[in-house]
Amino acid sequence: MALPVRVVYCRDLSPCFQYLQLKKKLEDEFPGRLDICGEGTPQATGFFEVMVAGKLIHSKKKGDGYVDTESKFLKLVAAIKAALAQG
After folding, report:
1. Which of 1, 48, 62, 75 is the least crowded, having the fewest Cβ atoms under 10 Å away?
2. How many other CB atoms are found less than 10 A from the CB of residue 68?
3. Terminal C-alpha separation, the chain
4. Within a 10 A sphere around the Cβ of 76, how many other Cβ atoms?
5. pLDDT (tens digit, 9 = 90+) per residue, 4-50?
6. Per-residue pLDDT at 68 exceeds 70
7. Which residues pair with 51 in a beta bridge?
8. Ranges of H-type helices in the chain
9. If 0-12 CB within 10 Å is exposed, 13-18 middle and 19+ buried, where does residue 58 land?
10. Residue 59 pairs with which residues in a beta bridge?
11. How far apart are CA 87 and CA 82, in angstroms?
């Protein structure tokens, strides 16, 4: 079963380039192992929130910004690897 990864982003960015870029990087890193979905908010929010298996891992609203550095991406990779290891 694929691990759910959900990204909520501000609808003003739809289609959100940052989401599409992150989705591709995660799919390349974990081919066939993730179920990645993106959802634009109904109004402008400034959101870019990433949840792995229901747990919030990255939050622009809480100061993380976009997933725009290798260290931010590796934080997601580590969370995904841990969730996959738990089954």
Report:
1. 1
2. 12
3. 9
4. 19
5. 999 999 876 556 889 999 999 999 999 999 999 999 888 877 899 99
6. yes
7. 6, 56
8. 17-29, 70-86
9. buried
10. 49
11. 9
CB count in 10 Å sphere of residue 56? 15
Residue scoring higher pLDDT (87 or 38): 38
d(CA 63, CA 53): 21
Which pair of structure tokens corresponds to residue 55?
């747990």
Separation of alpha carbons 38 and 5, rounded Å: 9
- Rounded Cα gap, residues 31 and 73, in angstroms: 16
**Type of residue numbered 82:** A
Please report how many Cα atoms fall inside a 13 Å half-sphere around the Cα of residue 15, on the Cβ side: 6
What pLDDT is attached to residue 14?
52
> 43 is written with which tokens?
């109004």
